Amino acid sequence: MDVIVIGGGIAGIATASAWSSVMPLLRKAQPTVTTAPCCPRRSTCGSARRSCRHGVPQKPASCSSPASILTPVPRNCPLFTKLLKQLLEDGGVQFQLGREVTAIRADAQRAAVELGPRAGEVDGKGRKSRDVELIGADAIVVAAGTGTPALLATLGIRLPLHPLRLHTLTAPIAYEERAPHITVVDSVKRITMTRINQRMRVTGGAVLESVAKTHKPMTESMTRRALALLGQATHDWIPGAAKVSAPRAWDGIRLVSPDGLPVVSPTGHARLFINAAHGPAGWGIACGAAKVVAAMVYGITPEVPAETLSALRMDRF
Ligand SMILES: Cc1cc2nc3c(=O)[nH]c(=O)nc-3n(C[C@H](O)[C@H](O)[C@H](O)COP(=O)(O)OP(=O)(O)OC[C@H]3O[C@@H](n4cnc5c(N)ncnc54)[C@H](O)[C@@H]3O)c2cc1C
What we know:
- The protein is an alpha+beta fold.
- 24% of the residues lie in helices and 27% in strands.
- It is built from 7 helices and 16 strands.
- The protein has helices spanning 10-17, 23-29, 77-90, 148-153, 220-237, 282-298, 306-312, and strands spanning 3-6, 34-35, 52-53, 56-57, 68-72, 101-106, 111-115, 133-137, 139-142, 162-172, 182-186, 191-196, 199-208, 248-256, 263-266, 272-276.
- The chain is globular.
- Flavin-adenine dinucleotide (FAD) binds at residues 6-12, 100-101, 143-147, 151, 166, 168, 192, 194, 203, 252, 254, 276, 278, 280-284.
């Protein structure tokens, strides 16, 4: 079966991997998540700040609110993706890097994508080429991150998925004994603190944006406010762990749905599938979502409960 996966991010590459022999490797790499309720400075429990022992932030004894999720520290994401790409190429998968899919065509018999010209490609008269290449397949999976809504719109499919700008700051570890060895997620303020070797990476300060604005940087004052939130959360949860006065800041866009769950779903077109809008957890759930969408393409019932599948369907909105 020929399958086109649109999207060069983790969702796309994991989806492509789900058809090949690398699936056992993906299964091994899928992180497990453990929950451990904690809540610093929550009005519900009145606890000002919990202690931090053995590098693991502790839940205050008086606290009953599930305000955080603790997960294992992620593995090396760039290396994981590069190895997958290499394995896929060895297995015959073709990558069309630097190409943009400008439209999708799908009907009961066949599906195809229109690929825009390569960067710098010129026509016979030396002008910028406008030639579109048509590539057909048995099925298409749209896993194009924030590009997904526009691509689906070419088929008249409109979903309430929105770009969200997320901030991150990376700061060197200040005191080793105070730095956690697991990821801490403040699920109330939606801020994640992850240790990456000798640095802490703090992510959050989300801003909902229009598609048009995602191509422009945010105003300085908005960025400052977002980064201040991250600094405060670091101070609340892991006081003294990182030198937040010397951080490296970055922001990026992710696609989110109104209920926060991804869309891993068949569509009204028998040959078209979606694997997108993973929000804050795209890396965490990429391999599992890929396995589900691969089963759908093959017409196999995915190995997840039926309620989970319906919670991920596009027609839930
Ligand atoms: C600051 C920040 C921190 C994060 N931290 C974490 C974390 O700690 N853990 C975690 O699990 N997740 C995290 N995430 C979320 C995670 O990064 C995303 O959920 C994940 O990267 C989404 O992957 P994706 O493949 O769906 O989309 P993307 O990575 O956006 O990839 C989409 C790809 O599709 C391509 N594309 C788009 N349109 C087209 C088109 N028309 N034609 C061809 N190609 C197209 C794009 O060029 C891109 O390569 C974070 C996100 C941000 C912004």
